[in-house]
Structure formats: structure tokens, C-alpha cells
Amino acid sequence: MYEVTAFNYTPPDFRSRIEELEEYMLNQEQVEIPVTHLQAEGMYCREITIPKGTIAIGHAHSEDFIEIVSKGKMLLYSPGKEPIEVKAPHTGIGKAGKRKIGYALEDTVWTTFHHTHETDIKKIEERIIVKSDTFKAHELSEAKI
After folding, report:
1. Fold of 38-138
2. Are the C-beta atoms of 128 and 62 separated by less than 8 Å?
3. Nearest to 78 by CA among 91, 88, 93
């Protein structure tokens, strides 16, 4: 079993805590998380590989989507819920506006599927990914360097 420090599970508290953690983590050495983009008629697929031992904070999404964990195991923290272990094979529905914190217990392959007729990856990402103010500020500071 894993020891888990409990969060106060009220969504506003979770949001402020996740932003604090995100700000701290963005100022640390970053782990390379490769992204594979696939497209088919009316569908965009985004696959990431998260190395074992990585703490990852997901962006919120603008709409619901399908998610599949095809390899590995993660411990996930979501607002309003107890931490859960998600392991392959897993298929679920990701909800719009929700963020998760994950700890990779094993190398993990996580894939999301989104409905779109757009083919430009940058435009798709701008539409489906809802970046936090903390992340946007970090991107701006990195662009100035």
C-alpha cells in the first residue's frame, strides 16, 4: 500500500494547492514526456509516455474525452475524491474542466481521444487544453529567456 497525504477535498482548496504545486514543479528540472499525435477522420489522439517515478499535473480540458491507459500504473489525485490507483488496461471518460495530479508507479502510456475536424495540432491543442494561469505565466517567462 502507498502512504498518501490527504488533501482537503473541497475543489477551491484543491485548485489552489494544485497551482502551488504546479508553480513549484515548473521551477524544477523537467522530465521529458514524449507526445505522439495521431489523427483520423474527425478524431485527434494524444498519447503521452510518463516515466516511472514522475509526478505529473494534467491540464484541464475544454470538453469531455475518452482516455485509455494501455501500459503501466499511476496513483491519481482528483478534486473531491480519494486517491486512486489506475492501471492498464483502463478505459474511461475524462471530464471537462477537471485536473489531476498523478504519480507514475510504473512507466505509463496514457492516451486521450478528442472529436475534431481540425488537422492543425497547434490549433487543436489551443482548443482542447485549458492552461492554468500559473502555466501561462511560466510559458511567458520562458519565452523571454
Report:
1. Jelly Rolls (2.60.120)
2. yes
3. 93
